[in-house]
Amino acid sequence: MDDPTSRWTQATVYPDMWVDPGDDPRNSDGRTPDGELATLQDFLTNYRFTLRMKCEGLDAEQLARRSVPPSTMSLLGLVRHLAEVERDWRGWLGDPVPKLYGVRDGDFDGAVADQAVVDAAYADLEREQAETDAALAAYQDLGERVGKDDISIRELLVHRVEEYARHCGHADLLRECVDGRVGQ
Fold first, then answer.
1. Which of 17-21, 124-128, 157-161, 179-183 is the least confident region?
2. Taking CA 11 as the corner, what is the angle to CA 9 and CA 12, rounded to the nearest 5 degrees?
3. If you count Cβ atoms within 10 Å of the first and of the last residue's Cβ in the chain, which end, N or C, has fewer?
4. Helical spans, DSSP H, in 56-140
5. pLDDT, mean of residues 1-20
């Protein structure tokens, strides 16, 4: 990069955090959930918040910026990709569903600096998350096996957590390249 950005954070309590603990929407009452299902859902919810936090405050150009060339990855591309992935996971429960953004890599390639594309990406993500959550809510037994590949509900939930966690790591680096903001 020709013009490196300065690193910064909004946190005042801990300089390596994204926001102060009192302002963090991921903080709960300090209690961890009881049970495996509740724990997986809690981790998933927190990673979903993390992705949104890493994207907030940026305009369409910044969200669409491919800040680590030659990669096509951008923050907006990650939002679109996770919407596509949520949709794809529902296909594991039964019949495959058509791709949301058409062709392979359409989620990243179509992530352009246009506010209408940004708005649509967030709407797609919310809808796909809600539909996948609703489909999985029908299964309370994490060991139940579904679909043509006989995959367990546990594996579907763990894979979702893993997918968000991995991409939140990407979002950390992408955001720092965009405007220098750092934090957990």
1. 17-21
2. 120
3. N
4. 60-64, 75-93, 106-109, 115-137
5. 78
Q: How far apart are the first and last CA of the chain?
A: 23
Cβ density class 139-178: b for 16+ within 10 Å, e for less: beebeeebeeeebebbebbbebbebbeebbebbbebbbbb
Contact 79, 51 (CB under 8 A): yes
Helix, strand, coil percentages for the chain (3-state, nearest 5): 55, 5, 40
Predicted pLDDT at 2: 55
37 pLDDT band, cuts 50/70/90, is very high
- In three-state secondary structure terms, 98 is coil
Q: How far is CA 53 from CA 38, 42, 56, 85, 167, in A?
A: 22, 16, 5, 20, 13
Q: Percent of the chain at pLDDT above 90? A: 67
d(CA 7, CA 49): 22
Residue 151, helix vs strand vs coil: strand
Q: What is the pLDDT of residue 11?
A: 85
DSSP summary character for residue 23 = G
User: pTM for this structure?
Assistant: 0.91
Tokens linked to 57? 């405050």
